[in-house]
Amino acid sequence: MEWENQTILVEFFLKGLSGYPRLELLFFVLILIMYVFILLGNGTLILISILDSHLHTPMYFFLGNLSFLDICYTTTSVPSTLVSFLSERKTISFSGCALQMFLGLAMGTTECVLLGMMAFDRYVAICNPLRYPIIMSKNSYVPMAAGSWFAGVINSVVQTVLVVQLPFCRNNIINHFSCEILAVMKLACADISGNEFIMLVATTLFTMMPLLLIFISYSLIISSILKIPSEGRSKAFSTCSAHLTVVIIFYGTILFMYMKPKSKEILNSNDLNVTDKLISMFYGVMTPMMNPLIYSLRNKDVKEAVKHVLNRKFTSK
């Protein structure tokens, strides 16, 4: 192998929307508005789940974790992306890129596992309501949430360490808005088949296995709901419809992004067109923005909790 072009990289160039200044300004405004909604919406859900004692249940404990996760996930990439839209300097240090890879992958993995845990919680609540307080006690749901975070951190540590140890050549242009791990990995001037295999194993464990758990849980939930009288079905469906909607949006976007067919030229050049990059960017902010809207609009408990907190605030004055 020839290693003439191998060098020690100190920074990467994030291509993003370079060459499209009008689009950069437009998407700066859009992404900024969406990011503000993410902070306000998810922050409100966290606040009311803490302040309202009626929401001190496993479901809302998981939801609070999901909201905190969405804030962390977007904060790892959105602020730097917004700065790059307005700045001519679109570089990121090697260490900064490694940190962004680690945080983004950790948050993404944790969300996949957490959604699986939330599906199991809904299964127990609907299919085994009498045993729900025993099965989903605090000794169960706290370790389940902690395990989701642990799985995300472990997966991210392993994959990030393997990537940063790769030798990189003079090409330091990442055709993306942020340091997406696969985009960085493809810049290495070495065989990355081992990294790709580990990524495949990790995807199976931390993405497909939770999806399988979600599928099994909701298959059993639907089967159980269809057996109860029709007047009670709407109430049973309402308890899990919000979570199912979030799952469909989350996994649906992932499947659309990574499984839609690409032309042979794009596959060979490792290039990424503007449409693909915009879809990827909106995926990173759309789902975290939609989660609090879905859970508040489709959930009476959350609506009542918001009213209760607001009333308590105004009456105290």
Automatic annotation (TrEMBL):
Gene3D superfamilies: Rhodopsin 7-helix transmembrane proteins (1.20.1070.10). Its main location: membrane. Keywords: Cell membrane, G-protein coupled receptor, Membrane, Olfaction, Receptor, Sensory transduction, Transducer, Transmembrane, Transmembrane helix. InterPro entries: GPCR_Rhodpsn, GPCR_Rhodpsn_7TM, Olfact_rcpt. The keyword Cell membrane applies. The chain crosses the membrane at residues 25-48, 60-78, 98-120, 141-162, 197-224, 236-258, 278-297. Residues 41-295 form the G-protein coupled receptors family 1 profile domain. It is found in: Cell membrane. Pfam families: 7tm_4. This is Olfactory receptor. It comes from Chrysochloris asiatica. The gene is LOC102812787.
